[in-house]
Amino acid sequence: MKYVLIGNSAAAIGAVEGIRKVDKKGTITILSDEPYHTYSRPLISYYLADKVTEDQMRYRPEDFYALHGVQFLGGRKALAVKTGEKTVVTAEGDIPYDKLLIATGSKPIVPPVPGLDREGVYTFIKFDDVKKIKEVAAPGKRAVVVGAGLIGMKAAEALVQCGVETTVLDLSDRILSSILDTRAAEMVKAHAETKGVAFKLNNTVVEVRGDNKVSSVLLKDNNELPCDIVIVAIGVTPNLDVIKESDIKYNRGILVDEKMQTSVPDVYAAGDVSEGYDLLYGGQRVLPILPNAYMQGEIAGQAMAGAEVQFGGGFAFNAIGLFGLPMNTAGIANPEGSEYEIMVDESSQDKCYRKIVLKNDRVVGFILLNSIDRSGILTGLIREQADVKAFKQDLIRQDFGYIHFAPDVRKAKLTGGKAGD
C-alpha cells in the first residue's frame, strides 16, 4: 500500500502514527512545502523571543521519520491532486498513491491593503515567517501588528520581548474576541499594557507607506503610525490550493465523513483544512485546534489502513499564556440566547476570572484566566456532555474537583468511567 500525506504538521503526524497502528509495511511519503522537520507551530513566537531553539520546536524526535518508515520530501510542494489517476502533481514529477491524506492546514488571510508588498511586512504562521522577522526585530524598532487574535497577540508578546515598540490594531472593540468575553478581554489587555503593548482598537490599517521598505501605516481614523515592521495577523483560512481544481468537495474546509474520508474514495483530509464534527454546535465546522488536528489525523491514518474507526467529534479549546498570564478557554464562551446559563467569578486583584457556560444542565463552554487548574475536568464534562445538575453550583468554585461529584460518579471517574455512567 502506498500512502501519501500532503502536510507535515499535527494532522499528518497523527496519520503516520495511525497508519502504523494497523499497517507496519506500507510505504508512507510525506510531502511538505517547508524543508523542516515536523515542528510545533505554537512555538514560533517563543523562537522569535529566544525562549526555545529550533531543536526544541520539534513536534516529534529527530528519528521519527526513520522509526516509522517515512520518506520525507521536505521542500517539495504539492501543486495539484489528480484523483482519476491517483497521483499528486509536483514540479519535480507526479507521485502515485493508493491512499492520500490532505493535511495542508491553513494559510493567512491577507486583506487587499495597498503597500503590503513592501519590505518589512510579514505574516506569522510559519517558521520561515519568524526567521525573517528575527533578523530585523531589535530594540529601537517599531512594529504594528494588525489583528488582536491569538496569532497577533502571540506575535506582539514576542516582539515586546525582543525590545520592539509594539502597537496592536484590531477592528473589534476588544482583543481575543473569538475566545474571550468583554470582561476577560479587558483584563488581558490591561495585563499586556503593563508589559509594554499599545493598542488601537476599533481601528485598522488602510495603507502601508514607504519607498521600498515600510516606514509607516495610515490608519482608518486617518492618523499615521511610524513603524519598521508590519505583521498581518487578521486570521487564517483553510489552505485548499492543492484541491481547488479537483473533484474533492469543499465548503469552507474539505468535507469529510466520520472516517475523515472526502467525497472521493481513498482521499482523506484532516486538521485545519477539513471540516470535522463539532460536538457543541452539532454540525461540521473547521476546528483549527492542534489537538483536534492530531486526533483527526490519527483517525484518518487508521481508516486509510483499513481499520473501522470514527472521529467522535471535537470542539474549540485553547490553552495559552500571554506575558505569564495563563488562560484556558473552550467551547461556547460568548453565548447568545436565553437558553444558556452563565456563572462568573472574578478577582481583579489576582487577575483571576472564571466563567462557566451551561445549557440544559450541561457545560458547553468556559473561560479561565490565571486559575486554570480545573480546566481538564471541565473539558471532560464538555466532551462527555455530562449532566451536572447535581453539582453545578460548585463548578465556579476555585477548588472545584471530583470531590464535588456525586459519590457514584466520583467513583466512576476515579476508576476510568464517565460521569453519568
From TrEMBL:
Entries under InterPro entries matching the protein: FAD-bd_OxRdtase (IPR050260), FAD/NAD-bd_sf (IPR036188), FAD/NAD-binding_dom (IPR023753), FAD/NAD-linked_Rdtase_dimer_sf (IPR016156), Rubredoxin_C (IPR041575)
UniProt KW DNA-binding keyword: no
An MF annotation (GO) of this entry: oxidoreductase activity
Domain NADH-rubredoxin oxidoreductase C-terminal: 323-385
Pfam families cross-referenced by the UniProt entry: Pyr_redox_2, Rubredoxin_C
Coiled coil region boundaries: none
Gene3D superfamilies given in the database record: 3.30.390.30, FAD/NAD(P)-binding domain
Residue intervals of the FAD/NAD(P)-binding domain: 1-297
The protein's required cofactors: FAD
Keywords recorded for this protein, A-Z: FAD, Flavoprotein
Database matches in PANTHER family: NITRITE REDUCTASE [NAD(P)H], PYRIDINE NUCLEOTIDE-DISULFIDE OXIDOREDUCTASE DOMAIN-CONTAINING
Name of this protein: FAD-dependent pyridine nucleotide-disulfide oxidoreductase
Protein source organism: Thermincola ferriacetica
